[in-house]
Every structure is written in C-alpha cells, then in structure tokens.
Amino acid sequence: MKIKILEFTEGARKAEGVTVVIDVFRAFSVSCYAYEAGVKEIIVTDSVDEAFKLKEKYKEAVLAGERNEKKIKGFDLGNSPTEILLNDLKGKILIQTTTAGTKGLLYASSATELFTGSLVNAGAVARYIKKLKPETVTLVAMGYRGMTSAEEDILCAEIISDRITGGNKDFSERIRNLYETSGKRFFIPENADFSPPTDFFLCTMTDRFNFVLKAIRRLDGNITLVKIET
Average pLDDT for residues 158-181, to the nearest whole number? Predict the structure, then answer.
C-alpha cells in the first residue's frame, strides 16, 4: 500500500486513491461532534451563497461554518465543537462550510473514495482504510486556512499512516505540545467568543469516536457526509 501525505487545496486536487482530507482545528472535529449530537445529515459546501441556497431548500437545517475563523453573518453556528455541544441538533440537517476543510473535500475530485479526518476519529479512519486494502492512500493535511502548514493536521496524517501500517508510535507528547504551537490561539482572551479554549480540548480527544465520515458527492455538486461505524 502506497501512502502519500500532501497539503492544502493543491494537495486535495492532486489526491488519488482512497483519500482522507484532514482538518483537526476545527471543521472535521465539528462534523464528528455534530453526528454525536444527533444530526441526521451533514451537507458540505465550499460557498456561503450555496449554503444559504441549501437552507432555502431544507428549511429546518442549521447553518454552521466560518470565514477567518469567525461565524458567518446569518449562520446559526460557527466552526466550534463547543457550540455543537451547547445546541440541540437532534434530527436536524447541518449545512457546513469552512475556509479549509470543506473546500478540500470538494477539490478532491480524483479520489476513488473520500473521507474526513481529525484526531477525534483517527483510529477509526485507519481501521476502515485497512479493511479496504487500497493500493493508494492520500492523506491531505489542509493546514491553517488551506495555505499554511498546521502541526495538528500533519500530526493527524502521521497518526493515521502509522496505524494503517501497523505501527505503534506514541504521539501523546506531540498532541500535548499543540497547546504551545498551533493550539495557542484558543487561549487568547480576545478569541474566546469564536475560538473558546474548550475547542482545543475537544479537538484533541484522540479516538473519541469509533466512526468514519465518508464523503458522497451529490447531484447538486455539494457533498453529504455519511456516518459509518467501524
């Protein structure tokens, strides 16, 4: 099995084989927590305008997402797992758009199968891919705003790769160190309204969930995330 680690939207465009688009802080952690909170469906789009159009179609849907880390004007929720836990989403459709992660899914058009990735379900992703036994796996670390390398996304890719290949490395110290590197922004007081400290801890709870989120392309060009237990 050949495993490649790429980055950013460019990496998503180049992805081939079974592909995992990784966004730990915070898009695909949010998606996992949303399914835990009882949403019945997640629809992903890369456009704010398209998100509002989907809302017109699905009147009871909840809009969640960010631009420049902050909640989009007119949206119900930002890109925060803390917000997910504080709201009643049972039975709702969640429409999600973010700066990096959701765009990566839509750009990975050459993938044979497509999944989201985050620390909270890294082990489940690795187990599922091992069952598939593909020739090629592409792990795309989307990075900060899809343009700058992010330690948490590279780390998540390395964890998934290690577990697919049967490794047993201890990544716990590197996960803790995120507090001093890319996770520092969650502890800046002026960011608390849109990036609360609790988001850091929720996003770094490695292997909290035993399911994967498979991306299925819709006829309207957007993506539905389907929950599959592993």
Answer: 96
- Residues pairing with 51 in the sheet: none
Half-sphere exposure for 43 (CA within 13 Å, toward CB)? 22
- Intra-chain end-to-end CA distance of the chain, in Å: 20
Domain count, the chain: 1
Model-wide pTM > 0.85: yes
Full domain range(s) for residue 189: 2-229
- Residue 165 has, within 13 A of its CA and on its CB side, a CA count of 14
For residue 146, what pLDDT band results from cuts at 50, 70 and 90?
confident
* pLDDT recorded at residue 145: 80
Reply yes or no on whether the pLDDT at 141 is more than 90: yes
pLDDT higher than threshold 80 for residue 98: yes
C-alpha distance from residue 188 to each of 35, 180, 185 (Å): 28, 12, 5
